[in-house]
Amino acid sequence: MRDGTPSTGDFGQRLRHLRVRSGLSQEALSHASGVSVRALADMERGRTRGPQRRTVQALAEALGLDGAEAARLEKSAALGRPRPRTGPVPAGGGPLALPRDIRDFTARGPALARLLELARDADPGLPVVTVVTGQPGLGKTAFAVHAAHRLAPHFPDGQFALDLHGMDPEPTTPRDALARLLGALGVADAAIPAGTDDRAGLWRSLAGERRLLLLLDNAADESQVGPLLPGSGPSLTLVTSRRALAGLESVHRTDLALLRREEAVELLTRIIGPERVRAEAQAARDLADLCGHLPLAVRIAGQRLLSRPHERLGKLVARLGAEGRRLDGLQAGNLRVRAAFALSYRQLPQESRTLLRRAALAAGADFSPETAALLAGLSHDEAVGCAEELTDAGLLQSDAAAERYRFHDLLRLYASEQVDTEDGPEVRDAALDRAASWILRRATAAALHFDADHEQTEPQSDPDPETAPTGRDEARAWLEAERAQWLASLRRAHDTGRHRQVLDTAEAMHWFSDLNQHWEQWVEVFRLSAASARLLGSKREEAVHLNYLSWAHNSCTHDARAALTSADAALAAARECRDGLQEGWALGYGAGALQRQGRMQEAEERLREGAHRLATEKSPQSRLAELTLLNTLGTLLRETGRAAEALDLHRRSERICRAGVPGRTDRVITLYLAVTRLHIGNDLAALERWHEAETPLRQALGTLEAAQVSAWAERTRLHLGQTLAALGHPEARTTLRTARDALAALRSPLLAEATQALAALDDAGAATT
Does 689 have pLDDT greater than 90? Predict the structure, then answer.
């Protein structure tokens, strides 16, 4: 010894002496060096005699050693490292050395933190295994390599990385993988057993004695990985795979997600430099979005820009903006997004390939197994099985609650390319027609649950009655979930000349549309149906659907000019075919549009003409239309300062409702009565008869809420809140706040009125304090 320092050959004693001399506890040295407390204890007790060079360097820096002391510490560690091929030895380099870490690695902080926590807290006798999964292009290997470099100081007996070639036609066999691992531990070729089981047993025996970090990259399946996992000891194994490897037991899982937008921009910044990103900040954000926040795509875009230092980000954004050229643009050298997807696609069975590419034809952000089955020509159960396989392969993402699936944007583009390449236009069109026909039949049957004219409880026109939605709640859920799909099917039916089906579907949707007035898509639905009626030469149906279209412009998109144009066209068609009912509706919808434009006198004239025209009609439908126009006329009178006249008119409507309308169901009349009570409450409020106004407004709200007619219910809640505020009622603020939030969700133009009413209430409260 010199100055009390242990001899060069005893690494553990030397480390302990240096730590004590520095005044550090094992915990403090662990924090400063990144080497776990358990690893330090093993070194100082002599269980680990020859840690790796990088571990020694980390300890030397944390202890503040000068060059000579650091060299002596390294020498003592080197003496403790067994010589190659003289028996099992640890190794950190050689043929299974960790790949180079990526300098510009970005994000994944929480996932890395969880792995570091696992390494620190692991039971010495229980090896830790974590499986890193996710769709192609998420950077699983980059993450695992980066994590391995961060974890290396905790595993001084060796860090090995082995590519299992899971996506190759012939992945590495467990037998060959075990031979390479045993060789890395220093087992001579002649000493490696011949059989897989014997190799696995020897590997487990040797690995159980060491603190090893093992990276098994690109695993094919559980049977390939299982024999390679240590059975005991303080090791940690990282497994990356494009498959979920759900059959591996007692493993931790790291499911990588897409980058957030700001993380994608940060990765781009680290690749090309902050100056270029700052110069085109919006283009950088747009580029991240066009890459779908997929790390591989962002990296390719960045590498491409890095190789072209004078090219503007906006130029690449413009190129990637065209969907048909996006995958072509996402390639830089041998890095290609399309190639990453193709690697997984080629591994799939034929049925799963078919489902993946045909599912790209589905409309909307996600799709159901029944839609995928129709497009792929499979049964429902076969489609579910394929979709689950694709989810396990990282090619689809499953919904957390519902049986629905979605693509990443770039994967959808790739799948669409495969439709063009493998199916061609005839097969594609046949799949789209088959799916559209079936979906429109189901949509029609589901919408008929809400047909107030017939009170039909179980529509019989569904293409598969055994799986059809039963009852209104299920029907509504299906129509809402499949909204994008049946709308796309309606477009296709129109474009391919199936106009009768378009009309039947749109007519069935008529009452259902009242429940979802915030859906702007109703404009397209009824524009298509009106066009189909015209192409079929049916003036009466053209008038009907032009009236529906006017309603949609008035109530859904709040476009008074378009509403008036449609109403005038409906009026002309109705008069041409002498349909008094549709003439009355057209006059009413036109009046509503005029009223929204502030043309009150013209609106009043049309309403009176329409009500008079409807009064001459004898059908039950005409009575309901007359009620609607009388209520609308009353509203106009109130808004032009004639609240007393409006109240008289609405009382007349109330009497009609109470008397009932022959041929109309009680449920329909109840809804009309609720709307009439809303108008009566507003009339009384306009006359400042606040106490009288409260009761009809509460009655109307209760009925409309129970019927789930959101647009009318929240309008009523707003007016009730205003009345309660005038009364100084304690429920006023809560009522108005609820109405404001609901109207915001409905994108209603009444939102501003609700916001003002709340502000006025707050101002009034402040004035009294």
Answer: yes
